[in-house]
């Protein structure tokens, strides 16, 4: 099944636009696991089991595993997610952005080694960095467009004097992703919940692309404004929540607490869609 179809199926199945980001930090683990990088799989697997019926996607962040030499645990976790939640797509948050044979190896890592359904990419070096991933026709790729961090203004919000109409860089990326880059209907865009006006602008330029939206929760993005700006009947959104879910409790009830936060957020997003 193609990524976009899988995403839409999960959205319907779980009545959800929520993505749970898996960013494991052993120092923040509950007491029984705290500080022990060997428990990364156990912690994340418990979160997955607690939230599998509440999400439209999971998003493991590869750096949190690689920093602790836990790539083997990530491989186990990917298999566990596919077994526990077979209808829920997995977005590998890697933000790769290289060209040629190197990009081909990164694509192989994401889709063959880890078995991800989609990956996040940086478009800074152009379409050459995107094309190798599109050879995997059933997979998706979310291109960084208007990110949630303040430093995104350094480049993304600058105008391109040499492009007709002098669009801002993020607007140009949105147009490319909706148009000439999207050869097989595989692309989506990353836009931050901290900039709802820009989400709306991206949605105007890319009416049918899935939007991966971080920044709700710990970064202060507003769920209602995010849904109103980004969700369309034929333009799905994937709203990511990481720390707020993962570290909802420091006790033995951490998985139950994560489920409660995920359920509340899922319902809040659905209510915003219907408002």
How far is the N terminus from the C terminus? 32 Å
Quickly give the structural class: alpha/beta
The low-confidence runs, each spanning 5 or more residues with pLDDT under 50, are none
Query: What would you report as the Rg, rounded to the nearest angstrom?
Result: 18 Å
Secondary-structure element order, N to C: HEHEHHEHEHEHEHEHEHH
Assign an overall shape: globular
Summarize the amount of helix as a percent range. 40-55%
How is this fold's topology laid out?
Layout: H1 3-14, E1 18-22, H2 40-51, E2 57-60, H3 62-66, H4 71-84, E3 91-96, H5 100-113, E4 118-121, H6 131-134, E5 140-146, H7 169-178, E6 187-191, H8 196-205, E7 211-213, H9 223-230, E8 237-241, H10 243-246, H11 254-274
Parallel strand pairs: 1-2, 1-8, 3-4, 4-5, 5-6, 6-7, 7-8
Structural notes for this entry:
Helices cover 41% and strands 14% of the residues. It has helices at residues 3-14, 40-51, 62-66, 71-84, 100-113, 131-134, 169-178, 196-205, 223-230, 243-246, 254-274; strands at residues 18-22, 57-60, 91-96, 118-121, 140-146, 187-191, 211-213, 237-241. An eight-stranded parallel β-sheet has the order 2-1-8-7-6-5-4-3. Helix 8 (196-205) packs parallel to helix 9 and helix 9 crosses helix 11 (254-274). It is globular, with a radius of gyration of 18 Å.
Short synopsis of the structure:
The protein is α/β, with parallel strands linked by helices and 275 residues long. 41% of the residues lie in helices and 14% in strands. An eight-stranded parallel beta sheet has the order 2-1-8-7-6-5-4-3.
Can you give keywords for this protein?
11 helices; 275 residues; eight-stranded parallel beta sheet
